[in-house]
Specification:
- With about 425 residues, the protein is α/β, with parallel strands linked by helices.
- It has two domains: about 5-30 and about 65-295, NAD(P)-binding Rossmann-like Domain (Rossmann fold, 3-Layer(aba) Sandwich); about 295-410, Rhodanese-like domain (Oxidized Rhodanese, domain 1, 3-Layer(aba) Sandwich).
- It is about 40% helix and about 15% strand.
- The strands form two sheets. The chain has an eight-stranded mixed sheet, with helices on both faces. A five-stranded parallel sheet has the order 9-13-12-10-11.
- α8 runs antiparallel to α12 (about 285-295) and α15 crosses α16 (about 350-360).
- The longest helix has 20 residues, at about 225-245.
- The two termini are about 30 Å apart.
């Protein structure tokens, strides 16, 4: 999900501003590493022939330490090209697992990786291409407890995260550590990207000052054109390599926007806000990160996909499943017997909307298991329902949503059980 609407709103204020133009060139981010062995020099011969890169630039690339947040739609193509370029060490932070729906765009993962941690899948994929490139797989979520140490240990960060809380966490950590960030976001047929380098140009909070509180539209709900990820993810790798080598004009102070339907790039120039307070800690974004991560104390009423599957196999097992996704999402796959009550109806009408959808099941004491695609919208639905539902109504959130359901109920090459498709 991207704050494109906010970007459009500020465009008229900053385009053409005399002090908004990013520097035409910046010094190399990384010092050259050791001389290249003959085999490595031969591998990167096309780089060695490039003006501005050459042998010294390739040695810089080989010495670079790059942190990539997310191994999904943007991270996968970016990592693929960073590894192909010979980046010395790539650390991948991602707590998610490969789902079958990822394979339409997340090009480093394969059918055999479904159910595996994405970070580990990426590590093996890179090793198969170039065993010299070191990939550190961290199967964990980026958060206030680990972000500063990770940023400080790397030369450069690529932020391919899929939620606002993590993006703003990266902004604040970058300001605290001085680490440059290549940032991008995609949704449907559009993508945008920029480079945030503390002390050398404006940051994310200069472009989008406030962390939005609405995460309701993401790639799961809005969709994403698969090949678009390759365009934007590869462009992120290009920016990273330019920074490492100190060549070209990086996207500092510029927001590049790509429309896949018209095949057009445009550019928004923006400047630092002199009145914006700089980050002095992570407290401002910590609560949003905790909410996005669904910390253990928030999961007291969660129910696993495995338990739901077992109880359904046993003949409903005292539960009813409520699906709050859109009709389009349900058309692709749904849990048999689930009741469809869209989130917008629940947010508007509360418990009466759900009671109308469930009928007698609303009052027969069964666990009401609410699901969406990933567990975020269902948690919002439960929060809204608790305000108006009868006391002690057994509301449970399907942990991980339909994504977890697909992993739980399917093996490699199999369709999820017992999900059913409404398509012919």
């Amino acid at each position: 999900m991207t704050p494109a609407a906010v970007g459009a709103a500020v465009a008229d204020d900053v385009v053409g501003s005399a002090d908004a133009v990013g520097p035409a060139a910046l010094p190399p981010l990384v010092e050259p590493g050791p001389e290249l062995p003959p085999a490595r020099a031969a591998r990167f011969a096309r780089h060695l022939a490039l003006p501005g890169v050459g042998v010294e630039g390739q040695r810089r690339i080989a010495a670079a330490r790059v942190l990539v947040i997310g191994a999904g739609g943007l991270g996968a193509p970016a990592i693929q090209y960073l590894a192909a370029a010979g980046i010395g060490r790539i650390t991948v932070v991602d707590d998610d697992r490969v789902e079958r729906t990822n394979l339409q765009r997340q090009v480093l993962h394969t059918e055999s990786d479904v159910g595996r941690p994405k970070a580990e899948s990426v590590r093996e994929a890179v090793a198969a291409r170039d065993a010299v490139v070191q990939v550190v797989a961290r199967v964990e979520r980026l958060g206030p407890d680990n972000v500063l140490a990770l940023f400080a240990a790397h030369d450069l960060v690529l932020d391919g995260s899929d939620n606002f809380a993590t993006r703003y966490l990266c902004n604040d950590a970058a300001e605290l550590t001085g680490t440059p960030v290549v940032w991008a976001g995609i949704l449907r047929f559009a993508g945008q990207m920029s480079v945030f380098w503390p002390g050398r140009g404006p940051m994310l909070r200069d472009l989008f000052p406030e962390l939005p509180d609405d995460e309701s539209l993401d790639c799961a709900t809005g969709g994403v054109f698969g090949a678009l990820c390759g365009v934007v993810g590869s462009a992120m790798a290009v920016e990273a390599l330019k920074l490492v080598c100190g060549i070209g004009e990086p996207l500092v102070g510029r927001l590049a926007r790509y429309d896949a339907l018209t095949a057009r790039w445009d550019e928004l120039r923006f400047a630092a806000d002199p009145d914006r307070p700089r980050a002095t800690g992570l407290e401002a974004v910590a609560d949003a990160c905790r909410a996005a991560a669904a910390l253990p104390e928030d999961r007291l009423h969660d129910i696993s996909a495995g338990e739901v599957a077992v109880r359904l196999r046993a003949g409903a097992g005292g539960l009813v499943v409520v699906d709050v996704r859109t009709s389009t999402e349900r058309a692709a796959a749904s849990i048999p017997g689930s009741v469809h009550v869209p989130l917008d109806r629940i947010l508007a009408d509360g418990w009466p909307a759900l009671a109308a959808g469930l009928g007698e099941a609303a009052a027969d004491g069964r666990d009401i298991v609410v699901t969406c695609q990933s567990g975020i919208r269902s948690a919002r639905a439960i929060d809204a329902l608790r305000a108006t539902a009868p006391e002690d109504t057994p509301l449970r959130n399907l942990a991980g949503g339909m994504a977890a359901w697909g992993v739980q109920t399917a093996g490699p090459g199999e369709e999820p059980w017992p999900a059913q498709s409404a398509a012919p």
